[in-house]
């Protein structure tokens, strides 16, 4: 079998830690399978390997492709491995953690038969825990003061508690939230930051001045540069001299004029943002922040206690519990030696989406050889706690020699046309810089491109639009494009990529324009699609059943998130009644209206068709 030079280097490496920067479509799964196969050929049993994927679907694909690789070989070691693949540890980290947590339940003091809660069950428990936490807190006089700081917004309060809970749950250091011990150190930091921004502005002026040969504008630019230097010397002092920019002198060259105007406006905006308050003002602000954070930490701990108690009473656990309990096991010497001693090689796919808890778990396998694959550019789960900075930190540690290992890149894309890759490179080499994206795209991250072919067309929307209006504008643009520019193309030959929660807005627009559609989505969480389908269908028949209602609202049809469920649950005595009477002017209400329209349409269809035809149509159109 022929490998690319990049692939060959990875497969030949015997480094303690192999870190692979794998851009999209560059064959990372293929390389992982080939690496595992080589280890099998060298006599490393599959039982000694732990292969972590991001989804169960990816784990199944990995297992199937490994089986095909083994079956096509006449190597007895590979043939033996094929017989062991079904029991091999190829899974998500949650699945493996759950397996270990159940096996060593006696060390944790938990029941070995704890069930994994459906996300909808866990969300309802969390919503009730939040409601109880707030109800208890509102009896405290400090609640009034805290709400005053938050603009009397209960949503801001619940968001604050949720964020603080996530921060503490993932092992965050509370001291990091208050990095400045006093107002003097905070003021000094603000002055240092201002001086750095002003130094950058002076550098920008040096570049702009080079674009001008002579004339009034050149003189003006030199005067403004001098003002910036003077401000940098005096910022934060009693002798502070702020620049006084006058109306810009004209420049004949339109392109140069635009460059100067854009950079000058950006610098003027930066100057407006430089405010160095006196220490007394900062001290008052620090005290307020300390109060808010202290209250938030107390509320987050109360919420977490109530939530954990609810799960324990139901003999259940969520996916966070799996990781935390697994880490607790690895901190117990008895369990750690038994668990980590079973593995000599650990593979971790989508490493850019690892969170701090997962990184600690990975570190516990310190004696094993690590094969880590990821792409910081594809990190999309920061909202779940993933930290692409962990990938960059490990890469930096290997580069500095602090950690034994080697860093490789996979840049040859096997999926896309050359012009698509060139387009992506052109965009990302400007967008992905150390300052904006944490990486230099041109160093080991850009696609290698050969040949030509394909046409790229990029369109922009009105950037003034925000939120729901922006999504709806995209949907309308897509509908008009389908009908006007691709009128001769069959509907089934076109696809639109979107976020799952945007579906109901697209559906509403496409219904208006008379465009037929079928929705396909992949479950990236650990709940399968079957429970969602069951609860959606059950909701049509039993609309007040709370569990089915909640799951249906959280599905693609409802587009709701856990905050929506909380707002609904907190507005009434029981969840079904709260849903039926919910009437607020917010995005939750907008989602409820769209969901009701969706269910009304399908209830009407159910009344008109046989059950078999209804289920067939529903599955086909909903994906």
Overview of this structure, please?
By secondary structure, the chain is mainly α. The chain contains 26 helices and 8 strands. It has helices spanning 5-12, 28-41, 56-71, 76-84, 93-103, 105-108, 119-137, 142-149, 154-169, 183-210, 216-234, 254-273, 279-313, 319-330, 333-340, 356-364, 388-399, 418-431, 467-485, 503-513, 529-541, 546-554, 562-569, 575-581, 587-608, 611-622, and strands spanning 17-22, 49-53, 89-92, 115-116, 316-317, 345-348, 369-374, 406-410. The strands form 2 sheets. Strands 3-2-6-7-1-8 form a 6-stranded parallel sheet, sandwiched between helices. Strands 4-5 form a two-stranded parallel ribbon. Helix 16 (356-364) links the parallel strand 6 and strand 7 (369-374). Helix 7 crosses helix 22. The longest helix has 35 residues, at 279-313. Residues 523-529 have low confidence and may be disordered.
Question: How far is the first residue's CA from the last residue's CA?
Answer: 38 Å
Percent strand equals 5-15%
Contiguous uncertain segments of 5+ residues: 523-529
Strand order across the largest sheet:
3-2-6-7-1-8
Please state the CA-atom Rg, rounded to the nearest Å. Answer: 29 Å
**DSSP summary: helix tally:** 26
Can you tell me the overall shape? globular
Number of DSSP-assigned strands = 8
Report a brief summary of the structure.
By secondary structure, the protein is mainly alpha-helical.
Features:
8 strands, mainly alpha, globular, six-stranded parallel beta sheet
């Amino acid at each position: 079998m022929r490998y690319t030079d990049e692939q060959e280097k990875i497969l030949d490496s015997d480094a303690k830690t192999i870190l692979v920067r794998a851009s999209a479509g560059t064959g990372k799964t293929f390389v992982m399978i080939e690496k595992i196969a080589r280890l099998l050929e060298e006599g490393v049993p599959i039982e000694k390997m732990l292969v972590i994927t991001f989804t169960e679907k990816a784990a199944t694909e990995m297992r199937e492709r490994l089986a095909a690789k083994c079956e096509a070989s006449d190597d007895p070691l590979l043939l033996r491995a094929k017989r062991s693949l079904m029991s091999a540890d190829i899974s998500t980290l949650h699945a493996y953690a759950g397996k270990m947590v159940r096996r060593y339940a006696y060390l944790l003091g938990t029941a070995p038969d704890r069930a994994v809660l459906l996300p909808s069950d866990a969300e309802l428990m969390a919503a009730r825990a939040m409601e109880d936490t707030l109800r208890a807190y509102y009896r405290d006089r400090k609640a009034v003061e805290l709400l005053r700081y938050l603009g009397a917004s209960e949503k801001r309060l619940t968001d604050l508690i949720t964020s603080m809970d996530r921060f503490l749950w993932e092992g965050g250091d509370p001291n990091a939230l208050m990095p400045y011990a006093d107002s003097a150190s905070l003021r000094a930091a603000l002055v240092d930051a201002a001086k750095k921004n002003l130094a950058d502005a002076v550098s920008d002026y040096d570049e702009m001045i080079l674009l001008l040969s002579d004339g009034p504008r050149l003189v003006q630019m030199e005067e403004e540069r001098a003002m910036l230097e003077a401000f940098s010397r005096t910022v934060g002092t009693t002798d502070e001299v702020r620049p006084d920019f006058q109306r810009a002198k004209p420049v004949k060259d339109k392109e140069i004029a635009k460059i100067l105007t854009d950079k000058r406006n950006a610098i003027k905006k930066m100057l407006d943002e430089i405010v160095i308050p006196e220490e007394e003002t900062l001290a008052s602000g620090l005290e307020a922040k300390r109060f808010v954070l202290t209250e938030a930490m107390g509320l987050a701990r109360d919420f977490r206690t109530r939530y954990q108690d609810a799960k324990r009473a139901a003999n259940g656990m969520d996916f966070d519990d799996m990781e935390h309990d697994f880490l607790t096991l690895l901190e117990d010497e008895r369990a750690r030696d038994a668990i980590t001693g079973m593995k000599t090689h650990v593979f971790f796919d989508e490493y850019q989406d690892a969170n701090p808890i997962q990184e600690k778990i990975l570190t516990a396998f310190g004696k094993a050889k690590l094969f880590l694959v990821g792409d910081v550019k594809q990190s999309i789960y920061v909202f779940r706690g993933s930290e692409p900075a962990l990938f960059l930190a490990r890469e930096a540690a290997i580069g500095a020699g602090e950690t034994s290992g080697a860093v490789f890149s996979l840049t040859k894309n096997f999926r896309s046309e050359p012009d698509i890759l060139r387009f992506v490179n052109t965009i990302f080499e400007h967008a992905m810089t150390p300052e904006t994206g944490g990486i230099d795209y041109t160093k080991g991250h850009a696609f290698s491109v050969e040949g030509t072919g394909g046409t790229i067309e990029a369109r922009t929307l009105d950037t003034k639009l925000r939120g729901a209006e922006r999504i709806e504008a995209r949907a309308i643009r897509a509908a008009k494009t389908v009908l006007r520019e691709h009128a001769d193309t069959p509907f089934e030959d076109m696809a639109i990529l979107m976020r799952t929660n945007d579906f109901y807005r697209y559906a509403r627009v496409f219904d208006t324009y008379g465009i037929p559609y079928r929705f396909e989505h992949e479950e990236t969480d650990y709940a399968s699609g079957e429970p969602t389908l069951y609860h959606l269908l059950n909701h049509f028949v039993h609309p007040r059943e709370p569990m089915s209602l909640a799951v249906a609202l959280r599905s693609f049809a409802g587009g709701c998130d856990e905050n929506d469920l909380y707002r609904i649950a907190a507005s009434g005595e029981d969840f079904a009644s709260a849903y039926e009477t919910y009437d607020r002017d917010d995005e939750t209400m907008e989602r409820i209206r769209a969901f009701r329209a969706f269910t009304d349409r399908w209830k009407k269809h159910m009344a008109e068709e046989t059950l078999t035809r209804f289920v067939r149509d529903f599955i086909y159109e909903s994906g």
